Amino acid sequence: MAQNSLNRLADFPEWLRGLARRRELRESAGQIDAARTQLASSAMRRVAKGFSAGIALAALGIGALVWRAKQSRRREVERLRARIAGDLHDEIGSNLGSIALLSQLAENVAAHDGEAREEFREIRRIAEQTAESMRDIVWLLRPGRDTDLFARMREAAARMCAGIACDFPVPEIPLPASLSLEFKREVFLIFKEALHNILRHARASHVTIRAGHDAKTFHLHVADDGCGFDTTRPATGTGLKNLTARTAALRGVFCVASEIGKGTTIDLSAPLS
Prior knowledge:
- By secondary structure, this protein is α+β, with helices and mostly antiparallel strands.
- It has two domains: 133 residues; 126 residues, Heat Shock Protein 90 (2-Layer Sandwich), CATH 3.30.565.10.
- Helix content is 66%, strand content 13%.
- It has a five-stranded mixed beta sheet with strand order 1-2-3-5-4, with helices on one face.
- A hairpin with a 3-residue loop joins strand 2 and strand 3.
- Helix 1 packs antiparallel against helix 2, helix 3 runs parallel beside helix 4 and helix 4 runs antiparallel to helix 5.
- The radius of gyration is 41 Å and the shape is elongated.
């Protein structure tokens, strides 16, 4: 019995060493597991970063391809516009000029035939008016700086209001370069319609024009000192109807104020975008 106790006491240090060894092995295993987990996490992060970088590069590549396609398409459209504008100017413009010249010569030949002379005069008027409209179309089609709306409006005012005092100062701030062609077209045609109405009906001696814009809105003001009209009576012509329809296309607001004997004022406001 005593011998067995001594044997157990002799084995106890060895058991303690084994216990310490097992503890060291468990700690080492834990450290190995932690290191393995850290390595796996680091590898996953690298994979994720590489995947994100790949997606970003792919997105940049797709974006570059789309941008190049848009630029190519824009250049193609500009070349087409320039070609159409050139064809209109060279072919149709030349033919209309010939018609106007020939009708003027025929008008002189038919000096003693009042009815024929009036017919030739009407042919010349229509040819000249059509040539003017064609020039406006060419201006809208032609790419580049020629499409400056304010400059074209002042040019049209000088031509149409010849013989009438016209006050149209240069607007202080140019229009945004991104302004759409459709916006320019509608505004320009509204402007010309307003001047045509003055020339046909107002018997004015002075016209005041103001054009400009703020951050969001385009403004146009056209006033004359002509005979005016009664705004409460239904309009007999198509001028005001055309102005109203074009203003609606711009999502704008159109206002006419007139008084008999005191002239007419037209105000247009339209959003720039």
